[in-house]
Write a structure and sequence with these properties.
Blueprint (H helix, E strand, L loop, with lengths): L5 H9 L1 H18 L5 H25 L8 E5 L2 E5 L4 E5 L3 E9 L2 E8 L4 E5 L8 H6 L6 H9 L15 E7 L9
Antiparallel strand pairs: 1-2, 2-3, 4-5, 4-7, 5-6
């Protein structure tokens, strides 16, 4: 029998990276407060690393979406793979030309477009979709704050009578110039 409620354990587990980053920042502040020629710069460096890590961890936490959607996402060696029950596919990060966030009938979907026009649709709540945060972070010129803010924005309510008009399509990132294709 656990003395800690399961909901609190689940919340602590979800926030574990942010908590660890704040612990590093606090340790850095404590080390810097001890003074001296060695401890002050070392503590300030640890404080800066902890603060940067906390910001990234908080964005990664906001990127993860609750819910269940069909399919599995895997990111391996600069390639995004989606294995869905009916559809799926692969897209290479060097070939990626555009990222959009599509909202259709209340469900949000990543719409990844390659330079040759092929599309890959990945539900935001798919198993393993949190790995897309680090994959998207490697793209040139992407603004991760905009990416996370788009996920945090509430989707427009869909009307089941007008399905075609219930679609919301937001451009998140587009490659400047031609896509680099590595063969």
């Amino acid at each position: 029998m656990s003395l800690i409620r399961p909901e609190l354990l689940a919340a602590a587990h979800r926030w574990r990276e942010v908590i660890a980053a704040f612990a590093l920042a606090l340790f850095g502040a404590w080390t810097a407060s001890k003074g001296g020629y060695l401890l002050t710069p070392l503590g300030l460096a640890l404080l800066a690393m902890g603060a940067g890590w906390a910001l990234t961890a908080f964005r990664r936490l906001r990127f993860q979406q609750d819910g269940e959607a069909p399919g599995i996402v895997r990111v391996t060696e600069a390639q995004i793979a989606y294995f869905g029950p009916r559809v799926g596919g692969f897209v290479g990060l060097p070939e990626l030309a555009e990222i959009r966030l599509l909202t259709l009938r209340g469900r949000r979907i990543w719409k990844l477009k390659q330079g040759d026009g092929q599309l890959l649709h990945i539900p935001v709540e798919s198993d393993g979709a949190e790995a897309l945060f680090d994959a998207f972070a490697t793209l040139p010129g992407i603004d991760m704050a905009t990416l996370v803010a788009a996920l945090g924005a509430d989707a427009a309510p869909s009307d089941s009578r007008v399905i075609a008009l219930a679609e919301v399509d937001r451009l998140i990132w587009a490659r400047k110039g031609p896509a680099v294709v590595v063969r």
